[in-house]
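Supplementary notes for students who missed Thursday's class. We covered one full example, reproduced here. Read the sequence, then the structure, then the short commentary at the end.
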Amino acid sequence: MKKFMDDDFLLNSQTAIELYQNYAKDMPIIDYHCHLSPQEIYENKTFKNITEAWLYGDHYKWRVMRANGIEEKYITGDADDYEKFLAWAKTVPMTIGNPLYNWTHLELQRFFGIHDILNEESAPAIWEKVNAQLTGEGFGARDLIVKSNVEVVCTTDDPIDSLEYHAKLKEDKEFNVKVLPSFRPDKGLEINQAGYVEWVQKLAEVSGQNIETYADFLAAMSARIEFFHSKGGRVSDHALNTVVYTECTEEEAADIFAKALKGESVSAEEEEKYKSYTLTYIGKEYARLGWVMQYHMHALRNNNTRMVEKLGPDTGFDSINDGILARPLSQLLNSLEKEDALPKTILYSLNPKDNYVLGTMIGNFQGGGTAGKIQFGTAWWFNDQKDGMLEQMKALANLGLFSQFIGMLTDSRSFLSYTRHEYFRRLVCDLIGSWVEGGEYPNDKAMLEKIVKGICYDNAKEYFQFDQVQ
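Structure (token representation):
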């Protein structure tokens, strides 16, 4: 029997152990998609206790606490932080088979040097040990990033954001980690969502452009893309919960936009046309500036109306969507490729049934002398666990070039989540090690080093070229 989460955790062969220890373990991290706050990074936010650092805003934990019968008072309610921590400690032993069990103990081990098992009995002592460190020196937001060996952090930012904290971080010569914005224009695409007209008005204000027509709107979006570029932005991100594509002219999109601005109803077909033309337009802008475009697809959000009305979005009531993907995604990408204007693109689906769809889709649009120009993005959200990661990686290996994979991102609001990169890297090494040990790939040390280091870091460094951002 192996020891619980020892040095060889998730590594099931001698080759896997060697690959991890020699090549993967100490590689830096390029976190090209996360939800960390640039303000909290700039201010080096500190935490008054482990609950604030661990449980605030963590809907992964909230979901399993609800499943364990914990009252909402101890999750998002008015219970004090110690009571919430105890409720989480009560839940942890019940998470057998859930990645949260391993993530929880990885974070305790790596950040706080605590190798005790968290449960109701150990909780009081762990509370004291962790809090004593958290409230001391060296445990602010910046410190946790540096301790995790992170080189680049890409936050998620609305086009109307001022990016003031990105600018301040850029000027701060004492912090050597690049914190760069990512362009997330979802609110400008959801033409039927409440608040759309108000968002367009704010876009007009920040862009300094009067928006009366669709042409004005596109010009304002271009202006904000240029603004993000000036602040170091080289990545966009889109939440395409449902992927659509319908041929549309600029004149048609302009008529639809005008209807929306006047508060008139926009049909589902018109919404599809508007989104199709707008996505194609801004995709060309990304290509012009050499950006990377990301599509996060097939989330079904805010399912529990009563709880969402009470707590708001991103509180643990989202799940996997199962809509049609292949044809509209192909048409959307092809609309850009036809004009030789498809940027580097990363495709993620929350539904693992789409693994082979994406694994084959990326092969349709590779080329241009860029290795891995179109990427099958890492296992995301509900899939960033052992089985989900392995299935994504094996699908990519079966259908494309796993060796050109740009690897893991954090996609988290927690500064303690960087241990997920270790979790991912261990699985990479175990998978490759199994191929070598099984005689499916030679024990070529030089090539194995190149592949492992590439997936962990080097491929992302070459793909994004953040080191060229001044």
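Commentary. The beta strands are 29-31, 150-154, 178-180, 182-183, 235-240, 292-297, 299-300, 319-320, 344-349, 374-376. The chain has two domains: 14-44+149-468, 46-139. If anything here is unclear, bring it to office hours.
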